């Protein structure tokens, strides 16, 4: 097992010692588990095709690349490419290791006049107990994004057919003079909006409790803006054991087929971005 | 239903939301941060939720850079100070008489005497309170008391400076020769006389040394 000092010494005499840019961009923390001989390099898959490699402290590794001590800033396209690369490295780490704790974008470690790999090792050593705790918590777990969308037109049609209240207003509308019809239409629109809200609320309840029953942890977030004509009613991240994923999928299929005008999007598996918090 | 990570189904938003907005955030000294300068990564904690926020993100980058360059300029300005690279011969606390504002008052700052200028500078507000080109000085008088120096420039502007030991300044400032009006350092005029018209001070003629007085 490498002690911090060993690694520092090792790195100073290493091949990159001379033209090292001075800092380390950190993608994630991985647990080596019983894997005593990890491949030390993940490949040239990092930001700007930098080589992502592992820095080890005891049984914990940080996945990093060498970078200058400056945050990455750029225009939209550039940031998108970087974000994809960040996720690419995390995906690779997830494939190779049992637990991956993803870092947020632009996490760069640096200390003046200290060997950058050494800085990472020292940081790992410092937070080791807390990291260990997190690694244990997320062992074998993956994150899935569940987004439930409501297709407004379809739900409107469905409610107009099935809600007695709306049907009554719609029936009154027929054969009225234009001025009265206009007011009735307004009333109908308001009633429809109300019905849709109610429908969204009941769908939320219908989905939420079975999902929490399957998942080990659920984080419900603010619904995102979606394409016109749809409305997001659930934006949740679910943490669940790998083997439970088919069950979640089945459950969502079942729920969405039983609820008209509803679309379910499942994304993942992600490393547990939404659950790792702060350190 | 297929779960996907890649951009096929998971939109850009899902990816951005997670990578920029979530993930482990470190509060450690070794994480890069320039004092007083927000980083993109950090400023983005403010939600990235939809395409609008993506646009906002673009704006945030600009904003971030604007703040950063402003800060760097300020730091640079503070480092170079009001002297613009000139080496001060004297640096002392001093005040300038201010007639304007809510009431007349002495305003204090740091007085620098460089080879070409007299500068009174307020360090905290990084503000130059008075600046006089030495070549523009027409007359120096000591109106009342030992601590006040009245400077009249060729444009007939007068400035009153006050400091303990202001004499140090006036001795170093050039003074007009009483005979021909050529400017020369006061000490030189008194000790050696005017190099232009051969005027000699009364003290010098009497064989007295300035140092002795």
Number of helices of chain A: 7
How do the strands of the widest beta sheet of chain B line up side by side?
4-3-2-1-7-6-5
Percent helix among the residues of chain B?
25-40%
Largest β sheet strand count, sense and barrel closure of chain A: 6 strands, antiparallel
Got a strand count of chain A?
A: 10
Order of secondary-structure elements of chain B? HHHEEEEEEEHEEHH
User: Distance between the terminal alpha carbons of chain A, to the nearest Å?
Assistant: 25 Å
CATH T-level fold name of the largest domain in chain A: Alpha-Beta Plaits
Give the overall pLDDT of chain B as a whole number.
72
Give the count of structural domains of chain A: 2
Indicate the CATH class of the largest domain in chain A: Alpha Beta
Describe the protein in words.
The complex is a heterodimer of chains A (279) and B (213). Chain A has 279 residues and is of the alpha+beta class. Chain A has two domains: 7-139, no CATH class; 142-275, 2-Layer Sandwich (Alpha-Beta Plaits), CATH 3.30.70. Chain A is built from seven helices and ten strands. Chain A has helices at residues 4-12, 76-96, 116-137, 152-162, 164-173, 178-214, 245-257, and strands at 23-31, 41-43, 52-57, 60-67, 100-102, 108-109, 141-151, 217-221, 230-241, 262-270. In chain A, helix 4 (152-162) packs across helix 5 (164-173) and helix 4 (152-162) packs across helix 6. Chain A is elongated, with a radius of gyration of 26 Å. The two termini of chain A are 25 Å apart. With 213 residues, chain B is of the alpha+beta class. In chain B, the strands form two sheets. A seven-stranded antiparallel beta sheet of chain B has the order 4-3-2-1-7-6-5. In chain B, strands 8-9 form a two-stranded antiparallel ribbon. In chain B, a hairpin with a 6-residue loop joins strand 8 (174-176) and strand 9 (183-185). Mean pLDDT of chain B is 72; it is low at 4-9 and 33-52. Classes of the chains: A alpha+beta (279), B alpha+beta (213). At the A-B interface, helix 2, strand 6, helix 3, helix 7 and strand 10 of A face helix 1, helix 2 and helix 3 of B.
